Amino acid sequence: MKQPWWKSAVAYQIYPRSFKDSNGDGIGDIRGIIEKLDHLQELGIDVVWISPLYKSPMDDCGYDISDYYAIDPLFGTNEDMYELIDEAKKRGIKIIMDLVINHCSDEHEWFQKALADPNCEEAEYFYFRESKDGPPNNWRSMFGGSVWENVGGDRYYMHLFGKKQPDLNWENPKLREKLYENIRWWLDRGIAGFRVDAIVHIKKEESLASHPADGDDGMCGLQGWARNTPGINDFLAEMRDKAFTGYDAECMTVAEAPGVALEDLKYYVGDNGFFSMLFDFTYSEINFWGLGWENARMKEDIPTTELRDSIFKHMEDAQKVGWTAVYLENHDYSRSVNKYLPTGDQRDYHGVTMLATMYMNLRGTPFIYQGQEIGTTNYNFKSIDEVNDISTHNHWGNWTAAGLPMEQKMYGLQYSRDQNRIPMQWTAGENAGFTDGKAWLPINENHVDINVESQKNDDNSVLAYYKKLVKARKESVVSEALSLGDFEPALLEDGEIIAYKRIGEESKAFVINNYLKEDHKVTLPCDVKSVVVSNYDDVALDGRELTLKPYQAIVFEI
């Protein structure tokens, strides 16, 4: 049976503010992306997800949209966007955009009309409530504080995220149709699909009632009444049918969907699912889940078995029902080498390439985040003043109010969402080759050592290794297994190994990763035919007895 194009694709995420600046204003733009398309083509990328480019006051770096049809002047023009789509197509690359439709900006004309006239049609596009006794309920915003903001008198509006991001009322059919019209408008202009932001929040509990507090602030989180709330499936099915279907090339949709219950996965990514795939959050937030950034664990505090079991569980759960996306990084997290490698090993070539091997060969569409392909590390933030991210500033305020010592606050700061928004490191030169002006965020000092230019022609670089991994998925003797094959865990009795099989109809692969920085002997569970990729030049294999070098990673044909 013919498989959808996106199952065999390798994806790349661009955070446009930080990718490449073409006009010297210190902010990345569309023409900068066009300038660097050849880099993506050489890497072997098939599809690029670009974080929001729409017109926005940029309170949340573009995730607060004031015009869904217009490109923000910071990034260029609509004509620039159309040119990008065309230029990418010439290189065999498709473009998907961010779809931010749980909320918009308070500067969107709909919200402005609603503020001016509480009885207008647009007022029904949002959650306005009257309350004489303060906020209408005790729900806590994702960014901290109440989800309610007063607009004068007894009138409040709901915002699950920032105060300048009012939630859209999906119960209103006119609002939904306007959103679908916009989706179809962009698809008609040649994009291949969307990454769908915060989509699990679009359904709210109808009563909007308060619930028992789960923190000292007297508020409660959103799970169950404003996240994965019963009834959401009706909205998602309608959007699939009215907005995503009916195009010659199947639309690729990637849902940001944390907390989806196992029994509901089939509706999201199964046959005729709401989306093509979704991002899982269990392993990507393994270091601070339930702890907060200020108490985040480093890799030496996270057993390899815990990380492995978290990844493998998602692999097996998703495999039962449909497809998924696999990733180590995105615009909301710190760098993967800092998260998943022990302190001091973040720049270890074999550790970095081991991580790449481990995740790039999992079952699902792999996403590479900008800079990940060269082993970019975290920046050492010196103060909160270096940070732009609204969420980080909210955290900092909460930490200060709670009386946390400066040392702990600075520790938490290193997990800021701005870690992965530090400008792309293109060269060893001034401003890392990102801009001729003053960059909107600090430039990482280690760009003199870690940059695209220095790795581009180095066969022993992290970039060269990523190219090998991408090529293995597409052109090797096991490409069919690596792109489409089933996932099967292996060597679970060994707590420092992450190993698995990929079983295809035409080929089979065995992937093994040594998470120890020392030699490690294992007995393979199968006979192997050949080495497809290894991050060492030699492989010490005697029959089924394999001696792995520190952080060695190998893809075998079996």
Highlighted features:
alpha/beta; single chain; globular; 558 residues; TIM Barrel; Immunoglobulin-like; eight-stranded parallel β-sheet; 15 helices
- Approximate helicity band: 25-40%
Return Rg in Å: 23 Å
Question: CATH homologous superfamily of the domain at 5-101 and 174-207 and 221-380 and 445-463?
Answer: Glycosidases
The CA-CA distance between the termini, in Å, is 24 Å
Mean pLDDT: 96
The first-level CATH class of the domain at 5-101 and 174-207 and 221-380 and 445-463 is given as: Alpha Beta
- The count of β-strands is 21
The assigned structural class equals: alpha/beta
* Strand line-up across the major sheet: 11-10-9-5-2-1-13-12
Contiguous helical run count: 15
Largest sheet: 8 strands, parallel
> What is CATH's topology name of the domain at 5-101 and 174-207 and 221-380 and 445-463?
TIM Barrel
Strand content: 15-25%
Tell me what the CATH architecture of the domain at 5-101 and 174-207 and 221-380 and 445-463 is: Alpha-Beta Barrel
Low-confidence stretches: none
Overall shape? globular
Notes on the protein architecture:
There is one protein chain. The chain is of the alpha/beta class and 558 residues long. Among the domains are: 310 residues, Glycosidases (TIM Barrel), CATH 3.20.20; 74 residues, Sandwich (Immunoglobulin-like), CATH 2.60.40. The protein has 15 helices and 21 strands. The protein has an eight-stranded parallel sheet. Strand 9, helix 6 and strand 10 form a beta-alpha-beta unit. It is globular.
